[in-house]
Amino acid sequence: xxxxxxxxxxxxxxxFLLGLVKIPIVGFVRPxxxxxxxxxxxxxxxxxxxxxxxxxxxxxxxxxxxxxVAGGIHxxxxxxxxxxxxxxxxxxxxxxxxxxxxSDILFESNEGLLxxxxxxxxxxxxxxxxxxxxxxxxxxxxxVVATFEMIVSVKCR
Length: 157
Fold this sequence. Notes:
Number of strands: 6
Order of helices and strands: HHEEHEEHEE
Radius of gyration: 15 Å
CATH topology: Thiol Ester Dehydrase, Chain A
Helix content: 25-40%
CATH class: Alpha Beta
Oligomer: single chain
Largest sheet: 6 strands, antiparallel
Strand order of the largest sheet: 1-2-4-5-6-3
Strand content: 25-35%
CATH superfamily: Hotdog Thioesterase
Shape: globular
């Protein structure tokens, strides 16, 4: 069965529903899916009252939400493309905060193919598969403000 195409609009709707129904903090922070394809995902979080800390920069919890969404939405994307069910979670995260995030932040992951391989391996083995992926947080001046190393854990059902 060939993989079907998934529109950006559908993925944005799925992200909205995820925040509304399953993960309220995602709904509260309101990340915006900018682009998604087989390799790259870009998610933007605006710097506003909900995401600011007392220093008027983005709170590290909001940064973690952005990294979570950017690192994890590929699992939903590939599961939807293949028409399969995927159990997905993060097993670990390492974050390096390089400078204060004092503007809207773009979260970018270019490792979608690693997530796809993990899903395919889980499908064939029936076991849970862990894969480490990288996410960058970039401010409006195109400077990297944080990097995240996320351990994605997937199992196909």
